[in-house]
Structures are given as structure tokens and as C-alpha cells.
Amino acid sequence: MIFFLTLFIAMRVFESSGQLPPLISSYGDDLICLPLILSAVVWVHRRREKNFTLPRVQGVMVLLFFSLYFEGILPLFSKRAVADPWDLLMYFAGWVTFEWLINESRAQSDFFLLPVVEQLPDGPDQSF
Q: How many domains does the chain have?
């Protein structure tokens, strides 16, 4: 998650200064949005279950939601939104990146996720 968040912030900085190439400016957000969001989901779950992996069907559901909403529904209601088939390819590539780098391999994913400092308790605190 740190890697993708840093990449997102760097893209915003370079884009605001006009130094981001148009291709990256157009498709970079679409490429990193799913790895960023899904890695945050996995990070939260791994605070409870160290070896958690997001079920593939849930990742596909998020992929389909983003594709349908941002490329199908939103362009019908917003003048700023444009349906672009290349965005669909970027969403898919981002999902594959998430699956390969974060979800499938615990050893690789430790580099891309925030460290889990402590495990959350399994239930409500009974100490009072």
C-alpha cells in the first residue's frame, strides 16, 4: 500500500507541475486505483488474520464495479466523465498487479503493504 500511495502522490505532484507525460496522466490513476484500494482492504484484514488473502471473486467484483460505474454509468450523468475502453484495460492490469504482487505472495506483499504493528483482539475487551 505504501508503494502505490507514494506512486499516486508522486503522480499528483508531477501532474500539477505539468511534468507528467500525457499517457501516464490519462491512464496512471486507472492503473493504480485497484492495487491501492485492494491492498488497503488486505492490510486491514491482515491485522486480524496474518495470512489473509482476498478471495479472487471479491477482487473481480471490485474490478467489475469500477469498470461499470466509471466507464458505463458515470459518463451518462457527468460531462467530465468519459467512457474509455483503455481505462478498462488499465483496471484489469491493476487488478492483475494486485493479485500477483500483494494478494498471492505473502513474502512479496510485505514490501507493498504497511507493516502490521499489532494484532487486533478477537473480541470485545473483557478487562473492565
A: 1
